[in-house]
Amino acid sequence: MAAGLSGQKIPKEYGQTAPFFRLAALVVDLICRGASDLQHSDHRISVPPCAVISAWMANGYASAHLCNITALLGAAYAFGSNVWLLRYGPRMYAVCCKESTWLGKEAFSTIQAACFPEYFALQSGSCILALGGAPSSWAKLLMTIATMLALVNQLVLGPRTAQLMVKLYDTSTGSADQPLLDGSSDVKKTFGMVHGISMLLDLLNLFAVFAYLCMVAG
């Protein structure tokens, strides 16, 4: 068994893409649809309540004070959640690898797969709200960039990462650690590329939101 692995595989339910789109629909849709409906309409996402609120503020239907509060809270959440992930994600990974006899890399990946749908949905929603309360054109540009980056992670890279994580530890074609040890593994290469791009977008989102906060604070 390779170092840091427990030998367990990730349950297939954590590789499903439906939670990403279902939570997008909850943040995005005024109508809460059932899981059975979502299986046939994962990509049918309508306008979110947060987008409606954002447009409502952007068009002057809310007071400047309310817009400022909403913008700061949205940006603060997006910034804080990103910092938490980038700081404590590696820490959790290190602990799971160290305690591989009962946790292992598989436990870390399972926790990630379980949390990412909600994480990306809330990050996208908070960016959309901050966009609606942006006080200037430059602030709007920065938060538009941050919102687009968050949505790409939520609707494209996040679901793909979850699928690949399950395959990475799949024991049906051999030992659980084989894909991680085989540098030529297509699954490992694809996972590394997708996860790397996702982390890059997270960093770019962090910088955009930080610049936004600096701008509105001034």
From TrEMBL:
<keyword id="KW-0472">Membrane</keyword>
<feature type="transmembrane region" description="Helical">
    <location>
        <begin position="138"/>
        <end position="157"/>
    </location>
</feature>
<keyword id="KW-1133">Transmembrane helix</keyword>
<dbReference type="Pfam" id="PF13664">
    <property type="entry name" value="DUF4149"/>
</dbReference>
<dbReference type="InterPro" id="IPR025423">
    <property type="entry name" value="TMEM205-like"/>
</dbReference>
<protein>
    <recommendedName>
        <fullName>TMEM205-like domain-containing protein</fullName>
    </recommendedName>
</protein>
<keyword id="KW-0812">Transmembrane</keyword>
<feature type="domain" description="TMEM205-like">
    <location>
        <begin position="74"/>
        <end position="167"/>
    </location>
</feature>
<feature type="transmembrane region" description="Helical">
    <location>
        <begin position="193"/>
        <end position="215"/>
    </location>
</feature>
